[in-house]
Fold:
Amino acid sequence: TFLYQILRGIAYCHSHRVLHRDLKPQNLLIDPRTNALKLADFGLARAFGIPVRTFTHEVVTLWYRAPEILLGSRHYSTPVDVWSVGCIFAEMVNQRPLFPGDSEIDELFKIFRILGTPNEDTWPGVTSLPDFKSAFPKWPAKVELFLWHLVVFCSIENAVHGSKQKNYG
Structure:
């Protein structure tokens, strides 16, 4: 039920146009008597909406930081929180961080080694991101294309209520 509570909490934030931007296990408070989970530390949270705002890339603890932020994007939205939730869930299942990088480039390469180095076919627009380098090592994906699309493009609402997106299977 912890994952469900995290998803419900972040869906609430997003429905009120708030990006948390620093989701990590240390920012989840759990009442041991009731197992109620609360999101905490909104110090990096920001409102989002129209017009698209430009944000800093210095957000989210490294291990939970979305690849678009690591690649220098300053225009991002709810998927950055969804990425963090996915990393937290993987850590809950495996009892260890999914991508424990010790620098931004190490973090990116840990992600690429699992999901594959992105290109314009798998992630349209990736080569235009400020910190994308065509010289990045080309790792093949170790997961099905469906999982890549789920991690990158899934919205909180689809994760909570069931996907209405195209099946990539």
About this structure: The helical segments are 2-15, 67-70, 79-94, 104-115, 145-153, 156-161. The first strand starts at residue 18 and ends at 19. The chain has one domain: 2-161. The longest helix spans residues 79-94.
